[in-house]
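Problem 3 from the worked examples.
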Amino acid sequence: MIKPLKAVLVDDEAGSVAALDQLLQTYCPQLQVVGSAANPIEAKEVIEREVPDLVFLDIEMPYGNAFDLLDSIGEIKFEVIFVTAYNNYAIKAFRYAAADYLLKPISIDELVAAVDRVEKRRGHQEINNRVLSVLASVSGGADAFKKIILPTLEGFLVEDVSKIMYLHAEGSYTYFYMADRRKLLVSKNLKEFEDMLPEPTFCRIHHSSIININFVKKYYKGRGGEVEMEDGETILISTRKKSEFFSRFR
């Protein structure tokens, strides 16, 4: 028999803790809530005492926030589902790092899906790197996204965003072309990365291509035109994306 996942709830609002606890009891029987805390100081004590598999972590709390708590813990050996009512840049960071997050008020369907993803990752040795990637993404604020986690068929890669040269769609997958000439096949579609990658550095110039404008070497005229990237690859620009492309160079 599979042991239930031990969970800790961290939120400064007692009502939110009680509501989440009730939702988990009703819809996520594979979880056992073993403790709760209202601030990072209490949370660290509960986590060290209970050694949970999963922590539901509110972002804004008294005496610090979720990232202060994670920064104070050595090796992260538990999964994290972030809970937030706002903070758009942090949400983008979570997407970057393939981390789970829930928006308040919590949707039952999204809660169940997030817990299911955590359960499928059970036993994987990637937790610490994933959480560190979140911390790297948010540490400098809205404009400081530095790392991105790329899910592959074998696991995942942590890559420097500035080293991404361009992306090409391949059905429900995406090829990443890196500055060091590596070609990575990633198990997400191009649209998801369009929503993640920071503007104005990254620009979707075609339905199947996103480029990092820092690696554009030359532009060739035409109806939409095309760009030559630093690795010699030429990429078409669709007519409807032409003005957006030029706006990045003004």
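Problem 4, a separate protein:
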Amino acid sequence: MKKIVISGATGLVGKKITQQLIRRGDDVTVLTRSIKNAKELLPGAHSYIEWNSSNSDWQFCLEGKDAVINLAGENLMAKRWNEIHKKNILESRVKGTRALVRAIENLNKKPEIFISASAVGFYGNSETAVNEESKMGNGFLAKVVDAWESESMVVEQFGVRRVNVRLGAVLDKNEGAFPQLYKPFKFFAGGALGNGKQWFPWIHIDDVTGIFLYALDNKNVKGVYNAVSPVPIRMADFCKTLGKIMHRPSFFNVPEFILKIIFGEGADVLLNGTNVLPERTIDAGYVFKYPELTSALKSLLY
């Protein structure tokens, strides 16, 4: 049994990881902005502590823990991008991570590992395949991820093992982007976003959970790891596969201008993609449960 503190536990990824940790018998402390909400969504945790990165009232709960998992951050696509939302995207990640790292620095007994979520947005947009050794790309998200990961790296100065999990588009039946992609197919109106030629670095939610737990349990895992399927696919092919499984056509593409009206600059996240490979993840010994799209989609839909 491990003693683990987790921030961002009520989000899509956080809920799945926390539920799995509780199920396997770990002692989980949930850092949350709403204790009431966290208890309803995640019953069975050892404790629930009110989380506010701007004060230090919660820091006592880190003492003597084996691991800290950091998943807190503003939802990228929760609203249309403007300067305020972009500021919140950046600051929620950087300030939250900084607060946790500073708290760890002041502990008498520091955790063995600090695992922080990250994103494949680090690579910008690239037709050429990239992996964990590839350089930083261009754009707002690349700068966000660089700043986010830089904060987490500081824990290594205190002898704490650091892992950054760069997430692709997480496929979950009930939350995130996937329900918005498959619902139009139910009404024979499904299709790709934009021209469909962009790469779509996806990953099944069970593999996201698997990678985090694998990092937690294996001391040889440290540094940056891509959490994406090892079989790259373009958006149009993703939608064709989805349509085939659902016995629906895939030709009603969502025009670029509509996405830009809805999401503003954030539409670039949907209209541009990168061919990301999880080479370090595979080399570290993690075996994907759903490396291939067809089996992944069937597990979510049926």
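Solution to problem 4. The chain has eleven helices and eleven strands. The CA atoms of residues 113 and 161 lie 5 Å apart.
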